[in-house]
Amino acid sequence: MSSFLRGRTVWGVSQRLALHRPNVRVFSTDLVADNFVSGSSSIYVEDMYQQWTKDPSSVHPSWDSYFSSLSKGLKPSQAYQSPPSLGGARMQQMPQQRETSMPDMAQVGSVEKMVKDHLSVSALIRAYQVRGHHIADLDPLMLESMRYEFVPPELVLANYGLGEADLDRVFTLPESTFIGGGQKQLPLREILKRLQSAYCGVIGVEYMFINNRDQQEWLRSQFETPGVTQLSPEDKKTLLKRLIRSAGLEDFFAKKWPSEKRFGLEGCEVLVPALKSIIDVSSSKGVDSIVIGMPHRGRLNVLANVCRKPLETILTQFKALASSDEGSGDVKYHLGLSHERLNRASNRNLKISLCANPSHLEAVDPVVQGKTRAEQFYLGDKTGDKVMSIIMHGDAAFSGQGVVYETFHLSELPDYTTHGTIHVVVNNQVGFTTDPRVSRSSPYCTDVARVVNAPIFHVNADHPEAVQHICEVAAEWRAKFHKDVVIDLVCYRRSGHNEIDEPMFTQPIMYKKIKATKPVVEKYADKLMKEGVVDESYFKDEIGSYLNICEEAYKTSSKATSVRNMDWLDSPWEGFFSTRDKSKIEPSGVEEDTLKHIATVFGTEPEGIDVHRGIKKILGTRRELTEARMADWAMGEALAWGSLLKEGIHVRLSGQDVERGTFSHRHHVLHDQNKDKTTYRPLNHLFENQAPYTVCNSSLSEYGVLGFDLGFSMTNPHALIMWEAQFGDFNNTAQCIIDQFISSGQAKWIRQSGICLLLPHGMEGMGPEHSSARFERFLQMCSDDPDKFNSDQSPTYEVDQLRETNWIVMNITTPANYFHAMRRQVKMPFRKPLVLMTPKSLLRLPEARSSFDDMLPGTQLKRLIPDQGGQAEQAPDGVKKLVFCTGKVYYELSKERHHKQLENDIALVRVEQICPFPYDLVKGQIQQYPNAQIVWTQEEHKNAGAWSYVQPRIDNLLRHHIKERRRISYAGRFASPSPATGNKSTHLLEQARVLADTLNLENVGGMNGNGNGNGGNMEARH
User: Residues 824-843, buried b or exposed e (16+ Cβ, 10 A)?
Assistant: First the structure.
């Protein structure tokens, strides 16, 4: 096409210039404006132009004149001229015979009306595509309060100047519709009938906001093509059988345990055949593994009839038996599984994982996505053809919980995408007791999905064949386009929020209708009987057959004497535990040659990359450190991760700005200053056949991204998965993941995870939002008992402590200890989450460096670092104060102690691993300094930090194990509701007082055991 038309739209052409010829598309300037975003308008003009270049007589004279003028260089606004004639006779003249005679006005008017009516029909078709879902028959209860408030005016025929008299007129269909089914012209009556069938029946489709023409066209074909939803008699029988199993299990539960909560599926029994349809299609497309997340409603039914977990195992959960293995367990409708079975539709083996989930309904969403992405990563599945995810939602939670939005926004990010997720909303039209009209502001609960242009399929859940169709389309969409899609199953709850709840208190009108509504399985059976597909005896036989299956499973479950939590693992690590010595942690030291090689590569300027001059300076510093055999924090980190990569351990670091590091210390991705998308990642170029290093900047999300990385960590125990907060303070927006999954996951679901939380922490005068990772919260959730102190004489004491705790909490002060902490995560014979307070000012503090000697074979993590740099250790009897502390305050205390020349009087001991508490090492330090006053110093406020965790544990040691009258006292900031002051001068004053109170020797010997000590004096001054 010539340059004057390329990329332009003909806006100035009058409607009366539109073509009325069978071989040329009807074209409207108004329609052009409507369709411009999809790029379809210019296609009409381009096609017409191409036709004109071949044969000018094949287009209307007005277009001939227009294109001729453009070819001579006129602007589009100048190229239009009134056509010589709109009469039918003039259309037959050859170009050389054209005249400028006046047209017959009656003929002109007739043609203009015909063109206008064709344009109106085209606009009407588009209106149904855009707005038809608003008047679809979606509610099985037909509640007036749930209907769209009015019929959109775009769907009213009279608004287009058309009426009853036009219904039998034949119109040419635009190419933007498939309702013709091969026919290019249809009567208006048939056009409306087909449009209403496609868009206003029991399916409502939202897709016209998608800004991709191919995707729009494909979706149109799936819903507009006549007869596309029809099923064969055998398919209808299969669908009925699946409904019978779904409804039959709920009936069986209700009869056996009428007063037991189970959050049954009554009212949305179609969910089971819906999921099975998705799985059938996906399996036939090559999917081998499906990761599922769902809230509690219908979970037991999905476990039994979709995942095919043995029914007797599920029934055992109703018997209130004690557990025969580890873990406290969880209620039955929170549990997950991992199961492999044959998919009969595709005749392929399929692994299904259903993730355990608490009652925080949508919290599992990012966990599912992380687990899915991990499986794809380790299988080399870069397009999601082998592994996929399905997430189920409730309507109120889908619209009400922000993590849904956070998860959707991960869907297209390079390091977080799962290449398309199928979301299924079980739309009860009520949330617990709350009406949708007061629980959301959007017309649909699914509107959040529009932010990523996901197509949304609404369907009346009492019409199983329609449900099956949209599920198959959704699975096809995901396989073809690798993008998210949402299925909105509009249904109801036959019971209240649970089986013992009374819904009539708050939804009397709704539940009167529900009581009068026949179950969907009976409705569908009646339909098939009328069609002659089945008869009544077939229906009853199938019900009886499934009831017998349930009864046999019940008899088997009655013989059980205990439940096995191991049966509910959603992430089994085959062979991991059986190949490791449970009482031994493998060494974490590394040979010096390996350390030097990693450090050298880490400090080398890459060839072919023009790096920033500031980066060149950083690389120079790294080379100097390597030459001196020293490591700062960034170097210690690189040595730890690089050595793991050499050993075949995948390392993944995720979070906001982690590539560079919040404090510009890491720089694991070097950017060319002149070429976009040209980068170099040194840790991926260390060794041949090394494991991959994945460092990925995330969206500005904590809840969603931490959940994602937790899910990633569940898949493969032979990996180091880390999430870093931009500042540790921001982990509080991910508190749900921390509380519900990380802290308690092993106890509830036997779910081990080695995920590491890197949380920058420290009072640096940066204000209340950038100072505290809320150290105390993690310590409060530690499962170790302050009054329990097993013998420290056991050679396996350290590993036993680690095995028994729910997680590890540390505040370390040296790069070497960071190095060992990272490597120990992988060397342990089990997996525990690590919560690590990471530094800010220590990143560049010269004193906070480590020699390579501290990372060589034979070295290990120091849970506690005794006094260094003074004479206290040489004459312990003369030490007046034994100060325990953790984190960067140690360096400030050490500097001030040296300034005041108190090295002989005060011993400074760093507790690097707070939980599990190093009783054995702390005990040894206390006994080493028998005459010293014992003080805990922290820079955090008294109601924060580690004080409330440390104090009862050290007192327990003193009372019951060392058996002394000494008690530990506190030195630090006073209690405060805010984590830190926002005033720099106040911060400096507070910090000076912390140091002064700690190093003050005036009150030594005056302790009364009340736990206040010098810290009490500090509080009094405030």
Answer: bbbbbbbbbbbbbbbbbebb
Which tens digits make up the pLDDT trace of 532-578? 999 999 999 999 999 999 999 889 888 876 666 666 566 778 888 87
**Given its phi and psi angles, is residue 765 left (phi above 0), alpha (psi -120 to 50 degrees) or beta?**
left
Closest by CA to 520, choosing from 490, 547, 550, is 490
Segments forming the whole domain that contains residue 843: 592-855
Q: In terms of domains, do 633 and 750 share one?
A: yes
Residues 753 and 721 in one domain: yes
pTM score of the predicted model: 0.86
> Domain of 814: which CATH number?
3.40.50.12470
Residue 41 lies in a domain: yes
Tell me the pLDDT tens digit for each residue of 94-132: 344 444 444 455 555 577 788 888 899 999 999 999 999
Neighbour count for residue 667 (Cβ, 10 Å)? 20
Determine, yes or no, domain membership for 119.
no
- Residues whose CB falls within 8 Å of the CB of residue 441, separated by 6 or more in sequence, listed in order: none
| Position 386 confidence tier, pLDDT thresholds 50, 70, 90 | very high
Which of 154, 183, 214 is the endpoint of a domain?
214
CA 521 to chain centre: 34
pLDDT digits (tens, 9 = 90+) for 738-775: 999 999 988 888 888 999 999 999 999 999 989 999 99
pLDDT at position 46 is 54
Domains in the chain, number: 5
- Asked if 333 contacts 263 with a C-beta cutoff of 8 angstroms, the reply is yes
> CB of 808 within 8 A of CB of 742?
no
Same domain, yes or no: 846 and 883: no
CA distances from 995 to 502, 869, 899, 945 (A): 61, 18, 12, 16
Structure confidence at residue 16 (pLDDT): 27
Task: Identify the CA nearest to 699 among candidates 417, 463, 1015.
Answer: 417
Shared domain for 900 and 929, answered yes or no, is yes
SS (H, E, C) 180-234: CCCCCEEEHHHHHHHHHHHHCCCEEEECCCCCCHHHHHHHHHHHHCCCCCCCCHH
Query: Is the same domain home to 822 and 970?
Result: no
pLDDT at position 899: 94
Residues 821 and 886 in one domain: no
Are both 529 and 407 inside the same structural domain?
A: yes
Does residue 882 sit in the same domain as residue 1008? yes
Region 806-822: mean pLDDT is 97
The answer to the question of residue 628 being in a domain is yes
